[in-house]
Amino acid sequence: MITIQERSLVNEIASIVRDACARETNIFGYGMWTHHIMEVVRYSRVLARLCGADEEIVVLAALLHDYAAVKDEALYADHHVHGPREAEKLLMSLGYPPERIEAVKHCIAAHRASVPTRRQTLEAQCLADADAMAHIAQVPSLMRMVFVERGLGIDEGTRWVRAKLERSWKKLSPLAQEMMRDKYCAVLKTLNCDLDAA
Questions:
Q1: Calpha distance 86→13 (Å, rounded)
Q2: Domains plus CATH for the chain?
């Protein structure tokens, strides 16, 4: 469980990330906060408690895992590289211990499904799982990204979302797959039906 002092830091980071999500420069829109980051935080807490991981590290990493992309669209493609640096700057400015900053940075660097990375800690696996679980649970946010932000057509956008969900599924640990199996199967069935009908 997170202590009162740790909760204060988490709340401060949450406020910073929420404010960044509310800026007009955030190409993902405020839904990035409400429909993705908050979902990742929620799943991160559950997984950390189930797995015995350091909940504070996992939650801070969940809050900051997409922060670089939210701050600057140019950092999106490699946000797993830029994100650890952004997290380090922010956490250092708040006096967070260097060894704990390194743990948060590793989680962020290893969270993507599209970039093969070895997750060396339980906390990193919790974040990777939580990120993938949020994609599966919040398909409308992925749809917004492909249809609104990227302007893809229905078939192309549906294929993109399906591929994203398949990558997300593959990076899930067995525990996370067990937790998400029904949702994943239902969403995939719907997306496959849409393509079959086209």
A1: 12
A2: 4-197 (1.10.3210.10)
